[in-house]
Amino acid sequence: MSFSVVIMSEYWVISAPGDKTCQQTWDNLNNATKSGNLSVNYKFPIPDLKVGTLDQLVGLSDDLGKLDTFVEGVTRKVAQYLGEVLEDQRDKLHENLMANNSDLPSYLTRFQWDMAKYPIKQSLRNIADIISKQVGQIDADLKVKSSAYNALKGNLQNLEKKQTGSLLTRNLADLVKKEHFILDSEYLTTLLVIVPKSMFNDWNANYEKITDMIVPRSTQLIYQDNDYGLFTVTLFKKVADEFKHHARERKFVVREFSYNEADLAAGKNEITKLVTDKKKQFGPLVRWLKVNFSECFCAWIHVKALRVFVESVLRYGLPVNFQAVVMVPARKGAKRLRDVLQGLYAHLDHSAHHHATAAQDNAEMAGLGFVTQATCTPLIR
User: Fold this and answer.
1) Phi-psi region for residue 40, left (φ > 0), alpha (ψ -120 to 50) or beta?
2) Please, are residues 10 and 330 in contact by the beta-carbon 8 Å criterion?
3) Belongs to which family (predicted)?
4) Looking at 200-209, 213-222, 251-260, which range is the least confident one?
5) Are 338 and 14 in contact, with CB atoms under 8 Å apart?
6) pTM of the prediction?
7) What pLDDT is attached to residue 122?
């Protein structure tokens, strides 16, 4: 196997074995892909990391594959949740997904190792552990923050549905007024009744006959939607239960409702409070998601760099001598580019052809220079 490939959406990160100089490797690769404009290439600089022992590299190779998958998963979760939080502004999601104040393609094609976060004097294992701990904490924080915000949003949506749903279920507080009710009476009470539209005439003709002790001509249509009308009826308290029973038999639904101005004001205040709380949380949450998306994405690319380094040393041996490159294949040019790279490096490993053929059968790019490979689909579909 002759060279190393990791696919990232439309980007390939490859590691070509070094010639006399890395610049010569870069020039040869550029010249080979320039013909037919097969790809646009960028150097992918990886610092002089600590190699460690062969056993450490082999063990780390497998672990980095798992870390790659984990970090990618968290990165996607943060991006997806940012889209959910933006709601009506979801079309602006891409412009909110930045990495270290750069758009994602620019960060990748101009990648620079972050020495402050991931000191190269540390062992490869320690660097991987730093990334794992960092992204693990972001994942845990995301669960807490998303749970709290989703609960707030869910409560608000439930209350809003009650303001606009069917008369059978919606909150009636916004539809009634104090003058619709007999209040503070020892004997009389006012009930709210939901009547199907097709039965308005039946209600008006017969509501006084449902039980005894109903106040004549006490009904009033307060509100109607496409299916139902909301009527009042006044009667003696002692026949209220009997009225509800017989009304239900006639397909009239009595809604339980007690007019209390303090309670009604509290209900309206609850919605106002939830709307205010949501607005207060929206800005800080969006900022947190943007910052931590950047942290996750940058960490993800550093994992890619670690994998390139480890697999290149395992593949090409010591001293460390390889050129890492980010390639952007031309549209519909992946197969031709793969063939060109195969031609460039096949002589270094007789098994390369076997792996390239298998990769085509699987409709993927094989790790022609890596023992392992990773495939990354676009962050936002």
Assistant:
1) beta
2) no
3) Belongs to the V-ATPase C subunit family.
4) 251-260
5) no
6) 0.74
7) 96
- Rounded Cα distance, 280 and 274, in Å: 10
Across the strands, what pairs with 220?
A: 232
Backbone torsions φ then ψ of 103, nearest 5 degrees: -65, 160
In the structure, what pLDDT confidence band is assigned to residue 378 with cuts at 50, 70 and 90? Answer: very low
Q: Which pair of structure tokens corresponds to residue 194? A: 């939901």
Cα 287 from Cα 85, distance rounded (Å): 11
113-122, 265-274, 310-319: least confidently modelled range: 265-274
pLDDT of residue 349: 58
pLDDT of residue 346: 78
Q: Find out whether 302 and 60 touch, Cβ atoms under 8 Å.
A: no
Residue 373 above 70 pLDDT? no
DSSP 197: G
Q: What values do phi and psi take at 353, rounded to 5?
A: -60, -40
For residue 230, is pLDDT > 80? yes
Cα–Cα distance, 4 to 6 (Å, whole number): 7
Contact 379, 75 (CB under 8 A): yes
Q: Which residues contact 224 (CB under 8 A, 6 or more apart)?
A: 167, 197, 230
What six digits make up the tokens of 86? 């933006």
Judged by DSSP in three states, 329 sits in strand
CA angle 199, 202, 206 (to 5 degrees): 145
Q: Strand pairing of 11-17 and 322-329?
A: antiparallel
Residue whose pair of structure tokens reads 């104090």 in the numeric block: 178
What pLDDT score was predicted for residue 174?
Answer: 79
Tokens of 342: 């195969």
Which tokens hold the place of 305? 């760099």
Q: Decide if pLDDT at 285 tops 50.
A: yes
